[in-house]
Amino acid sequence: MFQMTAGLSIGVLSLHYWQSLPDYKWFITAMIIGGAIFFCLRINLFLAIAIGGLWAWVTAVDYSKAVNSLPHERGNITIVGEVRSLINHNILDKRFIFVAESVKERDLLRKDAIRLLLDWPAVTDLKQGQRYQLDIRVRRPNGRANAAGFDAERYAVGSGIHGTGTVIAGTLLSQNGTMSLRQRWFDRAVQQTDGFTYRAYLLALGFGERDGLDQDDWSILRDSGLAHLMAISGLHIGLVVVIGWGIGSRVRGALPESGYWLWLPFWLALLLAYGYAWLAGFSIPTQRALLTSVLCLLMIRCGVVWSGLQLWSVILASCLILNPLASYSAGLWLSFGAVLVLYLANTGGIRRRKQAEQVRVPWRETVRVYVLLQLALLGLMLPLQWVWFGGISLAAPLINLLAVPWVSLVTVPCVLLAVVTITVPGLSGVFWQLADWSLHPVIALASLAEGAWWPLSESLFIVLLAMVTGIVLCWLLPWRRFLSLQVSLVLALWGVSDWNKSQTLDPDSWQVDMLDVGHGLAILIQRQGRAVLYDTGNSWPGGSMALSVIEPVLRRQGIRHLDGLILSHADADHAGGTSDVTARLNPAWLRSSDKREGFAPCVRGRLWHWQGLTFKVLWPPKRVTKAANPHSCVIQVSDQWLNPESDTSLLLTGDIDAISELLLARLEPDLKADILLVPHHGSNSSSTQTWLDSLQATYALVSAGKYSPWALPAEQVKHRYLMQGLHWLETAEDGQVSMRIEQGEVVVTRYRKDSQRHWYQPLFRP
């Protein structure tokens, strides 16, 4: 069985290594070969891998067909379908999941139903379960491609979302405004928790709806390691199963002996688990927990005994077969990773000792095991935490040690009782109030962990992975028999550490990163592990490009603070994230072309040196109260001091217009730039032919959004650059562009085309 489940899992997970979808003939051939090996050698691993890969291919092809039914570029279509998201009109986010059953009068088969993430800012009465005819402006999923940060395209695949769009107009088709029972209960819960301090947390625990949590809430949960706790997770489903089984066993014991009541604990536990999963909308984590509960309950009831690893592998394979694309979501890896760590910890000896070995006070033994398990989770989950979140909370073990039992045994039961009695507002309100009060000490404790999040650089990942692997092997294997293995691991770790050091030691080089921030601008200049930022990208209520892109990229590279911040001008797409950058990245010095408190002037004539690079300000001639496009701070960055024989220069231009270009050309007739930031995102208002002829640049960098409403860059401007023979590098098509410069040599990396190769990317960007 283990070979079969392992093979199915490997086959499904091979999907992550496909750069394109292969022809089905490859899987037929693999199944024939695997079948031959099975019949000859009785090894079913290869046959299972082929079957798993074939099923993953079928799922990926089905997803691709649904995506291909949408236009490549943004277009208007009419759809009919059903609202699937819980709607909370008390929050600013108006996005919701809509499943389309017909498109332009064409009925879709059930398996072809299109799942869309839509935005309808003007709607006021949308509810889950309602059927609508919608006129929408739709596009395929598209996200920013950077070295770190949120991957919207991978999220779309993992969530089964085929497209995104905006509703232009809609007509309600449901009679009498029909909505789902879950939405009715949710609306009552929203009303009954009005004015509660931790209303958003209560709704997350009761209905799995976390859209009400703001940026500050997420920061608290991240720093404290409690994000997994404030939702309907596998832990809470398991708690409900235990409660249901216990109640069923007691009721069965009180009833007369009869075969009719034999399965009462099983069915009651399953019913409660199913109900709690229904409250969460059968999200992927609750589906896994429900499947695990059913299997474990059946084993208990039927007296079947499996090892922990067998059970884990069967459930993993089952979840992957049910939804192969779920492997693109963090939840699957974190939940199964945590369970595997607990199994390894138990195998390694972290468990309650036998009665003869126990200390005199039994609760101390429980605390000992509990603390060791938290430490094991902290250490062994480190690689997964880094892959998905770029770091780990050092305070998580202590916070979880205290918060998990309290929330599980006090808060969650109160929330469940509040939901069960939701039709009796007076009684339900009492339980909601108790649950809210119970969260006060939890959030207060979590707030103490502010700043405990430890971002880990990319250079440390291989070392950390090797260390975790070595710890597990040395922990589980007899060390006396495997002394040579441990010595080899120590040497390997030492070698990997030296390898990482050799990769980062490059004294003559420097790097320019044009980050993919959509319509806006953010450019990092790095050398010797230090960085300067030119512009911050845009911001929005509750977030900014500084938080979602700039900070994660810097943290990934091991940089925690900026040496400097330069603002070209005051437009929101260039300076919107200033407050977040100054608060989170603490730049040592600040410069701008307008009058800002704490900022030094960035005007013509200013010159400074940083890490061997020369920063020379060429424009504007004087400082203004509020800098508009023509007042953008233009800076020439040169490495002439580092490489006097083959220097390279970068020209940062902000959003200067044609008049500014002409004036600057007169002031600097000998100005040259190897790397040119295309002014104003490639707008027709800039990039005159005279300007380009004088610069004699080699590379043209343009920061633009794929679906920008301003349709930038302009085609004729792009054509002008291409006719000059420049290498055109655009974030809308290439993602983050990194240029490593050393002694006149420029090595370009385009993160969308050079660093990311997945089968689903051509679907989103042909």
TrEMBL record:
Listed A to Z, the keywords are: Cell membrane, Membrane, Transmembrane, Transmembrane helix
The residue ranges crossing the membrane are 26-58, 226-248, 260-279, 291-313, 325-346, 367-389, 401-422, 460-479
Question: Per the database record, which ranges form the Metallo-beta-lactamase domain?
Answer: 519-706
Indicate where this protein is primarily found: membrane
One Pfam entry for this protein is: DUF4131
Topological type in the membrane: Multi-pass membrane protein
Protein name in UniProt: DNA internalization-related competence protein ComEC/Rec2
Source species: Photobacterium arenosum
Subcellular compartments: Cell membrane
